[in-house]
Specification:
This protein is mostly helical and 297 residues long. The protein has eight helices and nine strands.
């Protein structure tokens, strides 16, 4: 279910007045370009031939409070265009320039801009081990594109604040918004909060202060990964031991079945020689029944 804020954002984006929503200038403007390489566009063709473009978002397929799917109520034919297709055809520098022009129109100075270096995580934690995201080739392309967009922005505003992403980051399975390569472990958000807090309180971050904060959270993330590796190793050993013991038990069962079967055959022969048909029949039934039970297990 989407809340009022998300639904309002979708409506503003669709009606092309999203940028007008920012009617009050803030002390700082925090930026990341993740959605620029992620969401893509929806091409909507109406019955009269009018073509309308708006941002494609997973939120469109979520339900609002009255149970309506945002994308379903829109008329006309809808065609989805990926960000990769758009960015390969368009001039990325021109797109960045247009955004920068809007920032300047709003009166923001370079020192009021905080650019966050967002990247897709290659791995996520299931709280037992680190697992690689399946679509890493696409995510890697998006990371390279984000690097290029950030470079263009920093060329335009070399004096803006740039928060590099922490080392060793990974995705979090229990993220409140679900598992995704842009939803990270808790340490990433704590790191970003500390960095933004230093900028807004002090006006800048010295190289030494940045180094200390990066080292602090890199160590935390590294310790988490180390614990995951240790846990994963323990789980693997337990699983290996279990499989080995299971194979041993199965082998022992086969050997025991063969031994018992051989013993019963000997007794059958003795019973047959002594003309004991009743005893022979009981022993034969016991052997066949025991063998069947073994294969049932």
């Amino acid at each position: 279910m989407i809340g009022n804020f998300i639904e309002k954002c979708i409506v503003n984006d669709y009606n092309k007045n999203f940028l007008d929503y920012y009617d009050e200038k803030s002390d700082y403007f925090i930026i990341d370009f993740a959605t620029m390489v992620r969401d893509g566009l929806v091409k909507q063709t109406l019955e009269d031939g009018t073509i309308h473009y708006f941002t494609n978002s997973s939120k469109h397929r979520a339900r609002n409070k009255v149970g309506r799917n945002v994308i379903e109520v829109l008329p006309g034919k809808k065609e989805y265009i990926s960000s990769k297709e758009i960015l390969q055809q368009e001039n990325i520098a021109l797109i960045v320039d247009r955004f920068c022009a809007w920032l300047e129109e709003k009166g923001y100075k370079p020192k009021q801009l905080i650019l966050v270096e967002v990247k897709h995580a290659r791995y996520y934690s299931d709280e037992k081990r680190l697992i690689e995201f399946e679509n890493w080739e696409q995510l890697e392309w998006e990371n390279r594109t984000l690097d290029e967009i950030n470079r263009l922005f920093l060329t335009r505003y070399p004096e803006c604040h740039f928060i590099r992403f922490p080392d060793g980051y990974y995705g979090g399975l229990r993220h409140r918004w679900g598992l995704f390569s842009l939803h990270y472990c808790d340490e990433v958000y704590d790191y970003l909060y500390d960095m933004v807090n230093m900028i807004t309180e002090r006006g800048e971050i010295t190289e030494e202060a940045e180094r200390q904060v990066r080292s602090k959270y890199a160590n935390r993330i590294q310790n988490n990964v180390k614990q995951l590796n240790q846990f994963s190793s323990t789980v693997d050993k337990v699983e290996l031991n279990y499989q080995q013991e299971r194979r041993k038990a199965f082998t022992y069962s086969i050997l025991l079945k063969q031994q018992v079967s051989g013993m019963l055959e000997q007794v059958e022969k003795v019973a047959e020689l002594h003309s004991k048909p009743i005893l022979y029949g009981m022993i034969h039934a016991a052997r066949v029944g025991w063998t069947a039970r073994q294969w049932e297990h």
